[in-house]
Design a protein that fits this description.
Layout lengths: L2 H6 L4 E5 L5 H11 L6 H9 L3 E8 L7 E8 L2 E9 L8 H15 L4 E7 L3 H9 L3 E11 L5 E10 L2
Parallel strand pairs: 4-5
Antiparallel strand pairs: 1-2, 2-3, 3-4, 5-7, 6-7
Helix pairs in contact: 2-3
The structure holds coenzyme A.
């Protein structure tokens, strides 16, 4: 904890880079949001990977994030691998704040073009990406396996950061 944090306490909301120490929490957050899991060792590897930029949002005094976003960087392009917010904290602007800070970090790292894939019926995610002016550039039919055995369409979205 920094001296400022000791004197004045932690701000109510913080966005911070994540590291391997957050792997257990990130794995749980991912499992609450998606049918397919990222196990803890896999998440720890991703959080140590220098080509992956990971940011978390922290609420109150908690030392563990209540949401995170990860992007893989390659030259001046990046792909958002995932973003998720703890269900108990959704709908309060945390996803928006987290993505806003994450995009700023990507720009600082020299990323000019950002891509992501999203299920075509994921209304909250589409609203979030729409707010940041992501545009549809492609489709992958039958991409996401669904619990009922069907497969859902993935949309490929792009946003220029330059
Ligand atoms: C997508 C997700 C990260 C959004 O996080 P959040 O903190 O709830 O989002 P915010 O409160 O910042 O809202 C962001 C935008 O989405 C809209 N939104 C939020 N929940 C919504 C809902 N249930 N239906 C429609 N729009 C919704 C908000 O109105 C807001 O739009 P605005 O910026 O134009 O005002 C969150 O719903 C989540 O974790 N979902 C499960 C994981 C997931 O699907 N991730 C995306 C994978 S591609």
């Amino acid at each position: 904890m920094s001296l400022l944090e000791r004197l004045f306490g932690r701000p109510k909301l913080m966005i911070e880079a994540l590291g391997p120490r957050h792997a257990a929490r990130v794995s749980v957050l991912h499992a609450t949001s998606f049918a397919y899991g990222w196990d803890q060792p896999e998440v720890a590897r991703m959080l140590s990977d220098p080509s992956i930029l990971s940011d978390g949002v922290f609420s109150g005094q908690s030392r563990q994030p209540c949401g995170f976003v990860m992007s893989r960087l390659a030259a001046d392009e990046a792909e958002i691998l995932t973003i998720c917010i703890d269900p108990a904290h959704r709908g309060r602007g945390l996803g928006h704040l987290l993505l806003e800070r994450h995009l700023a970090q990507l720009v600082r790292r020299g990323v000019a073009t950002l891509f992501l894939e999203v299920e075509d019926n994921n209304a909250p995610a589409l609203a979030l990406y729409g707010a940041f002016r992501f545009a549809k550039v492609g489709e992958r039919p039958g991409y996401y396996p669904k619990p009922d055995g069907t497969r859902a369409l993935a949309l490929i979205l792009r946003r220029d950061l330059g």
